[in-house]
Design a protein that fits this description.
The chain is α+β, with helices and mostly antiparallel strands and about 775 residues long. It folds into 3 domains: about 375 residues, no CATH class; about 210 residues, no CATH class; about 140 residues. It is about 25% helix and about 20% strand. The protein has 22 helices and 31 strands. The strands form 9 sheets. Strands 3, 6, 19, 20, 25, 26 and 27 form a 7-stranded antiparallel β-sheet that branches. The chain starts with 8 loop residues before the first strand and ends in a 6-residue tail after the last helix. Keywords: Antiviral defense. This is CRISPR type III-associated protein domain-containing protein. It holds the Pfam family RAMPs.
Length: about 775
């Protein structure tokens, strides 16, 4: 039986994030007591053809040429940044780090495969209305005005309207091209609405279809609004029934704002054809703006919009919203995983870290080149539900039978989960494949300049002030978890990975540290790797342990080229196939029996994807102790945390230790105020850096209590004491802000004034 197949698969996303206890101590300036610096000289060998492209050569009526990266002398190189990125992606998984580099995409759907689908229910639960949207620069929001619409058949339009005789003659003309031929700024056309007898879609019986006619002499006035060609076969597409657009008429005289307008319009632009969106943004109707179809709910509430009468509807949740629920610590500014500590990270508000590992470009003396025929380097979209989301309702055959409302595909809703880290499993050979559907579309084709297999590239990485566990992790990553150099477990590098290119391994490594003249021996390297694996085993909360966790097992299995010898690691075709032994993207999502990406096989064993770990972060010391000490404390600036997870960390780290349950009759806010007051009194007059940092951090607890006593609690005694404390600039830094933070100072003064007003207290300024 045909199954879904792809050149990629997914390492399950871990809910647990490991943050090393030394995260707050990482520095280029202050060495660790046991810090190691030195070099790793390596030889990288490609087991399959390799393309590390630097230049894309565009050519008229010919595929794009992807040329190898070269130094100024023309010698082929692998840029150090390419190797760094390859290794970092492995370390993120191996060290149970955060799921990084995620695009904030909010996808949309148009699922008409069955009447029980979530899409069908949303459409049937509302009304699709034609409308115009336009941005109001004065009110700084999008506004909408509704109108009526009727069908406009292209053959009649071409025959009767001057300037319209080129519309959709090829029957495959996209909407943008139609608008270019007949722009929105043309004068309104006169027309009537009358029925036209056309064969019904299925039975062929004649039915009356209302449409625009009598162009130029009718009683109504309207504006032609074009749609793209419909997804039917060529024979049907040429029939008048499927060859139409619309006329918008009877337009409301006034526009009005609508709830959540920015998000709805942004999603409209993101989830529709980029060329059409760009054209309409630059060439709107001068008075009415951009034509759309809006899905309207009760009380004319705009729920969604698109450019077709069956608009693409935005899913309930975006990628980042699912990620935030699945891995809450991913959003934290104060949680640093091992990959960030070793390779560096860019953060807002001064939390960035420099890399402590530096890579030279790798060079080769024996590289031999070849150029491929035409191939397609497509980038799959995460909107393909059958792969990019976990599908808990799939059976042993990787099918989801959506026979009732209880068995729907996971589709970016609350509770749905991302599949995880996308990896390209190692393939034994390069597959130069060009789908028949794009054989004549040279604009999407590429020719790759490849280095033939078994070329050797020599390079060096320099490490600075790494903990032994970090250096062990780096070696573990280079060897893809193997105890010695191996050519069976491969990394994936460069262009053409979906086609099997880029399978590389590190064939030889020499590790030298600054406190040893001679390179490290095999036993010493093994000890370093063990220091990393022992650390991860001691920290990983999975019942399977770290080494046997779903994450590590999937990643190692993906890299095992021998295990992947007979797997179908090719892209599917897009359009439906008449061959039952061929699976396509369209076939997989058709009807009530959906086909999804099967679980991964390691030999004959199906690897489990669930780890049974709750969302958490691991560290031996309390997280609040890590955050409120060392480098992190010095970097915590004034200003409220940007998300709830960091707000919780701030709240706890503002105190001497983690808040524990206290047996007392006093309310929580009273206990917190008393602890705050005591802490500030203890810090009064101290000028050492730690005390200054602690005093600064306590302003966030002041802010939280001010808001709580204004909006939630009623306690005039505590409120009065809190006001006095907050306004005492010698004791508390709440109002001690520099000139660059005038807006924040005004905000805090406003909060204090609101607290005074709430209790009728007037503080003498």
């Amino acid at each position: 039986m045909a199954q879904v197949h792809a050149p990629y698969h997914f390492v399950p996303l871990s809910k647990w994030v490991y943050m090393p206890d030394w995260a707050h101590l990482v520095s280029h300036d202050v060495p660790f007591e046991n810090g190691l610096s030195g070099t790793i000289d390596y030889t990288l060998v490609n087991q399959t053809p390799l393309c590390v492209g630097q230049e894309h050569v565009k050519q008229d009526n010919a595929p794009t040429g992807v040329k190898w990266a070269r130094d100024p002398q023309g010698n082929p190189i692998i840029p150090g940044s390419s190797i760094k990125g390859m290794l970092r992606s492995v370390l993120e998984i191996a060290s149970f780090g955060k799921f990084g580099q995620v695009d904030e995409r909010h996808f949309a759907e148009r699922n008409i495969s069955n009447s029980d689908s979530n899409y069908a229910k949303k459409i049937s639960g509302g009304e699709v209305r034609s409308a115009w949207i336009k941005y109001n620069a004065v009110s700084e929001c999008w506004e909408i005005r509704f109108c009526e619409h009727t069908k406009l058949f292209h053959n009649e339009f071409n025959r009767e309207v001057e300037g319209g005789h080129f519309i959709n003659q090829s029957h495959k003309q996209p909407a943008r091209d139609k608008f270019k031929l007949y722009p929105l700024d043309k004068p309104k056309i006169r027309f009537d609405i009358e029925p036209l007898a056309l064969p019904a879609e299925k039975k062929g019986e004649l039915v009356d279809v209302l449409r625009a006619c009598n162009f130029g002499k009718g009683k109504l006035e309207g504006i032609p609004v074009f749609s793209s060609y419909r997804p039917v076969d060529d024979e049907q597409r040429r029939k008048p029934r499927y060859n139409y657009s619309y006329v918008y008429y009877d337009i409301e005289p006034e526009s009005m704002g609508f709830t959540n307008s920015s998000a709805i319009v942004n999603n409209l632009f993101k989830n529709n054809n980029a060329d059409l969106v760009s054209y309409l943004q630059k060439n709107p109707h001068p008075e009415y703006g951009i034509p759309v179809f809006a899905l309207v709910g009760k009380n004319n509430t705009v729920l969604n919009m698109g450019f077709a009468k069956m608009p693409r509807l935005t899913y309930d949740r975006s990628i980042k919203q699912l990620l935030k629920a699945q891995q809450p610590l991913n959003d934290s500014q104060y949680c640093f995983d091992m990959a960030e500590l070793v390779f560096g990270t860019l953060r807002d508000r001064g939390f960035s870290l420099k890399s402590r590992v530096f890579f030279s470009d790798a060079t080769s003396q024996n590289a031999q080149f070849q150029t491929t025929g035409s191939v397609v380097l497509g980038q799959p979209l995460a909107s393909y539900l059958g792969a990019y989301l976990e599908q808990p309702n799939k059976d042993a055959n990787a099918e989801v039978k959506v026979s009732d409302s209880e068995r729907e595909l996971a589709q970016y809703r609350d509770g749905d989960k991302l599949s995880g880290w996308k990896r390209y499993p190692a393939q034994p050979r390069f597959n130069e494949y060009l789908p028949s559907a794009v054989e004549k579309k040279v604009k999407v084709q590429s020719n790759l300049e490849l280095v033939k297999p078994n070329a050797e590239f020599s390079g060096r990485l320099v490490f600075h002030n790494l903990k032994p566990q970090e250096l062990g992790a780096l070696i573990w990553v280079l060897r893809m978890g193997q105890t010695q150099d191996t050519q069976r477990h491969l990394h994936s590098l460069g262009h053409g990975r979906p086609l099997g290119a880029g399978g590389v391994s590190f064939a030889a490594m020499t590790v030298t540290t600054s406190n040893n003249e001679a390179p490290l021996q095999v036993e010493q390297i093994s000890e370093l790797m063990s220091s990393f694996t022992d650390l991860m085993e001691s920290q990983c909360p999975a019942t399977t342990g770290w080494q046997n966790s779903p994450q590590i097992r999937h990643m190692i299995s993906f890299a095992d080229v021998e295990n992947n010898e007979h797997k179908n690691l090719t892209y599917m075709q897009c359009q439906k196939s008449k061959d039952p032994d061929v699976m396509t993207y369209s076939d997989s999502m058709a009807g009530r029996q959906k086909q999804v990406l099967p679980d991964w096989h390691n030999g004959k064993e199906v690897l489990p994807r669930k780890d049974g770990i709750a969302p958490s972060i691991s560290h031996s010391k309390p997280l609040t102790e890590i955050v409120s000490a060392g480098r992190l404390s010095a970097l915590i600036e004034e200003g409220a945390p940007e998300n709830t997870i960091d707000a919780d960390i701030f709240k706890k780290s503002a105190l001497t230790e983690d808040i524990a349950p206290i047996s007392s009759s006093k309310p929580d806010y009273v206990l917190r105020f008393e602890k705050l007051e005591s802490e500030l009194l203890n810090l009064n007059g101290k000028t050492d850096q730690d005390s200054v940092n602690r005093k600064r951090n306590l302003t966030h607890e002041v802010n939280a209590l001010v808001i709580e006593l204004t909006e939630k609690e009623r306690d005039i005694a505590i409120a009065t004491r809190l006001l006095a404390l907050a306004r005492n600039t010698a004791l508390c830094d709440y109002l001690n802000l520099n000139r660059r933070k005038k807006a924040q100072l005004r905000e805090r003064q406003g909060l204090l004034e609101a607290l005074e007003k709430s209790y009728g207290v007037e503080y003498e300024k």
